[in-house]
Amino acid sequence: MFWIIAALIGGYVAAIFTWPRIRTWVVGVEAEIASLREKARALQAKIKSFTGG
């Protein structure tokens, strides 16, 4: 029983210390996706202006 409680406490502590890094990584990935989508929209608009479509 002691080992189960110790494992739960250890997991909780690990989650608290790693969550900021995970969250920063996720936010960074989301920002990169948004940036790439904006670049794709700009490129699409530029292509449409060249082709007249």
Q: What order do the SSEs take from the amino end to the carboxyl end, as H and E?
A: H
What is the averaged pLDDT score?
A: 92
Strand count: 0
Radius of gyration: 22 Å
Residue share in β-strands: under 5%
Low-confidence spans: pLDDT under 50, at least 5 residues? none
Shape: rod-shaped
> Main sheet, how many strands, which sense, barrel?
none
Number of helices: 1
Whole-Å distance between the termini? 69 Å
Backbone structural class: mainly alpha
Helix coverage percent: over 70%
Can you lay out the helices and strands and say which pair or pack?
Elements: H1 2-51
Walkthrough of the structure:
With 53 residues, this protein is mainly alpha-helical. 94% of the residues lie in helices and 0% in strands. It contains 1 helix and no strands. The protein starts with a helix and ends with a helix.
Features:
mainly alpha; about 55 residues
A few lines on this structure:
With 53 residues, this protein is mainly alpha-helical. The protein has one helix and no strands.
